[in-house]
Amino acid sequence: MSDAPTSMDYGDYLHLDEVLGAQHTLSPDHNELLFIVQHQTSELWMKLMLHELRAAVAHVADDQLQPAFKMLSRVSKIMEQLVHAWDVLATMTPPEYSAIRPYLGHSSGFQSWQYRCIEFACGNKKAAMLEPHRGRPARFAEVEAALQVPSLYDEALALLARRGIPVPEHVLQRDVTQPYVADPGVEAAWLQVYRDAEANWELYQLGEELVDLEDAFRLWRFRHLTTVQRVIGFKQGTGGTAGVSYLRAMLDTELFPELWTIRTAL
């Protein structure tokens, strides 16, 4: 039997009054609603992405790869949605953005605690990235907790070791709060998996799921960069970031580096 009240309708279930009432424009400009909806919907997709990522990490840690594969595939599809969301924001022209920018204050996507948790879950760990959240203790604690737990890649490498694939001990025992650094021993481990994919099928599939995820992440970063450059050029970001130059530097970040370098050796 369902516990749902018989009087509940579509709007009640989805709390649409609250959701659709959460867009509060500050400027008189017509285009501000686009800017708000773009970022609110992106945060909703990120909420689902974090839900799936955290569950996938837990399943990998428990050697339950089949449900992890489904979750990682879903995360990649969510990232595709976020990539295409930039297409809509890119319809905002520089004069249109300039009309609403004074009303944004110091708010910036750089302050998205959900995005930072996603980066940390994927292994892009930097303690300095905690600072934008220090003014909100509850959120700071959540982001700090994400920094301190093993990432998806940390758990993947631990799984390889449990399955009998040699992974350097210093990698398995590394400080997970630090950025991951590519290691030739890890490259050798993935090469062993890929050179006998049939014997290591689940690990091979895990590797490809990680590549799919990073591929989607790279596309999202590139579209973020091009959209920002198209709308504000090389102006400094509203939150004090370097804007385009910072986003361009992020394009060189690799989450699962050995899964890319082995392609040359195969």
Order of helices and strands: HHHHHHHHHHHHH
> Counting H and I runs of at least 4 residues, what is the number of helices?
13
Compute the gyration radius: what is it? Answer: 21 Å
Mean pLDDT across residues: 92
Poorly predicted ranges: none
The percent range for helix content is 55-70%
Could you give a short account of the major beta sheet? Answer: none
Cα distance spanning the termini: 55 Å
Give the helix/strand class.
mainly alpha
Per DSSP E runs of 2 or more residues, the count of β-strands stands at 0
Strand content: under 5%
| Shape designation | globular
Can you tell me about this structure?
The chain has 266 residues and is mainly α. 63% of the residues lie in helices and 0% in strands. It is built from 13 helices and no strands. The chain has helices spanning 10-14, 16-20, 32-61, 65-89, 94-100, 113-122, 137-148, 152-162, 169-172, 184-195, 201-232, 244-250, 258-265. Helix 4 (65-89) runs parallel beside helix 11 (201-232). The protein is globular. The termini are far apart. The model has no long low-confidence stretch (mean pLDDT 92).
Short synopsis of the structure:
The protein has 266 residues and is mainly α. The chain is 63% helix and 0% strand.
Which short descriptors sum up this protein?
about 0% strand; mainly alpha; about 65% helix; about 270 residues
SSE map:
Layout: H1 10-14, H2 16-20, H3 32-61, H4 65-89, H5 94-100, H6 113-122, H7 137-148, H8 152-162, H9 169-172, H10 184-195, H11 201-232, H12 244-250, H13 258-265
Helix pairs in contact: 3-4, 3-6, 3-8, 4-11, 6-7, 10-13, 11-12
